Amino acid sequence: MAKKLPTSVYRTLFVDAWRLTIERKALWVFGLFAAVLSTGGVCEMAAKGFRNLVVIRDVYLDILRGTFTGAEVFGQLVKHVTAFDPNRLTGAATLVIFIGIVIIIASIVSQGALIAGCGPKPISDRNAYLHGNHTFWHLLPLNVLHKFIHALLTLIAAVPLLLLIQTGGATGIFVSLITFLIILPLTIIVATLFILASIHSVRTGDHTFDSIHHAVNLFRSHALATFETGAILFAAVLAAIVGFLATIMIFSLPFAVLATVALVSKSVFFFTVLNILGVIALFFLLAVFAGATTTFQYAVWVRFYEHAVAPRKKIISKLHRIWIGK
Asked: Is the distance from CB of 130 to CB of 196 less than 8 angstroms?
């Protein structure tokens, strides 16, 4: 009897993650807050890094031209700020900092709650929150390290780019290209290690460095599979974004008709109410979409982690199976 060959798990993995996302809609709230610091998309972090490089390039070009973007606006802002009463300015700054800290805490707790809620067995929202609250001090250093390393990699990639803009030439192009080709996979690896370490920390309660060590070993064992999972997940989320935008455009047609009617009728009240409801509906749909997609991404990685640490070792890399002819 022929030996049964290991099969790819991606179809089952993504189907299970999608089913979990649909069935446990309460997790979308945690997904919305978790998206503030991390969406769970490994390739999305690389895309964000590329956008940051583009922004740095544009700013540097403006500096060279003597037209630094936002310099005039920033100067006017400083002028207006200095005109405010110091007590009010201090109070406003304190309020902004406080709100920022609360959002960061909520995001980190939501990451832990989302990972716990995406487990094989459904748990209550309260238990999910308790899991997130319990692992807060483990996930906080992970988030800080992740953002620091990501920013450092972006700055390293920006140095040859800025040198290319200033000097030009084939050498600058070659160095920039090589640097980008090195930094891009490193960014993906760092994001992968972060999500795997976060899942391990929530599942086992291990401390930050223990979780990172476990994530490194897990990545070494399933490097190709993690890249494949991240690429497929990125494509799925990208398709979802395109579909969401198309849906928004379709549903905006009735809104445009009503807005035209309001303008023709010259009803200020109707036009104002219509715009307020339109903005509220748009923000609600964006929040739902962000929460659902983040939940789906975390569910995929939790399923991936469960499969990777299973006692029975399987080949879960499709490229590996193709390479060895199985």
From this structure: no
